[in-house]
Amino acid sequence: MVKPLPFEEPVIRLREKIDELKGITDEAHVDMSGEITQLEERLARLEKDVYGNMEPWDRVQVARHPERPTTLDYIGHLFNDFIELHGDRNYGDDAAIVGGIAEFDGTPVTVIGHQRGKDTKENIRRNFGMPHPEGYRKALRLMKQAEKFGRPIVCFIDTKGAYPGKAAEERGQSEAIARNLVEMAGLTVPVISIVIGEGGSGGALGLGVANRIYMLENSTYSVISPEGAASILWKDAALAKQAAEAMKITAGDLKEMDIIDGVIPEVMGGAHRDAEQQSGEIRETLRTALAALGSMPADGLVQDRYEKFRKIGVYSE
């Protein structure tokens, strides 16, 4: 059973009432179809109201949902013949980033993404989706390999941020992310990034220098978490809800500011409700983007990427 979030309580209670009436109908052989139909119509209106008017903090909670589909979930639904490749050829393999080669609609592609765990044991193995520098170096190795063989690159972003621990810093965390930014900017193959959950800080940007950036409707993309921002601005992490509103971290906000190229609609209640249906929405977006970028020459792709990031931001002289 999918764990409900606090703002979903009215919807959950109404669903439980409908299930209760259906149970009475089956067990007592009492016809309550009229009441059930009315409640189902009311449920449809309530879901539209609740899920259609979510506040930024609500979307943060959905983006963090423990059952939200991960990179490997989407790979299984979207791509054929995926072969995972490991290691950065320098230090080791980082399970917080997965990547490899696959086919999308018959076209060879390279797929890379942050990977969270499904339970405590796997989360520990994958460091809760927070990569070490060897993870970003593995990603870059796979990107350069894709460039060599002319394969488009698809990145899935889903991390609270790069791991800030002592060992990561000793092995060059900042340098690894910075090198990814530089190298991705100059790749001569199409690069498409999709934020599927949390897109936090430089840890997200290390896979985010792309020709096209898309976000799932309930994902977030920001330089810092709402809790971190609240701690810095107001010395109180409990004000994270207010920070989320002020930071403009939702897909709609970022599309309005032209930081991303499009918002991918989510199934009712969030992507965790139906990963297969959600993958269908992503598939159509990928098809459109790959078709548009596939006709660009190599220097055109680099220029397109440059112009995209050059125009981000507001400044005055």
Tell me briefly what this model is:
With 317 residues, the chain is an alpha/beta fold.
List keywords for this structure.
317 residues; alpha/beta; 2-enoyl-CoA Hydratase, Chain A, domain 1; 8-stranded mixed sheet; 15% strand; Acetyl-coenzyme A carboxylase carboxyl transferase subunit alpha; acetyl-CoA carboxylase activity; fatty acid biosynthesis
What does this structure look like?
Strands 1, 2, 3, 4, 5, 6, 7 and 8 form an 8-stranded mixed β-sheet that branches. Helix content is about 50%, strand content about 15%. The protein is globular, with a radius of gyration of 21 Å. It starts with 8 loop residues before the first helix and ends in a 7-residue tail after the last helix. It contains 14 helices and 8 strands. It has 2 domains: about 5-55; about 60-310, 2-enoyl-CoA Hydratase, Chain A, domain 1 (Alpha-Beta Complex). One of its GO terms (molecular function) is ATP binding. Its EC number is 2.1.3.15. It catalyses: N(6)-carboxybiotinyl-L-lysyl-[protein] + acetyl-CoA = N(6)-biotinyl-L-lysyl-[protein] + malonyl-CoA.
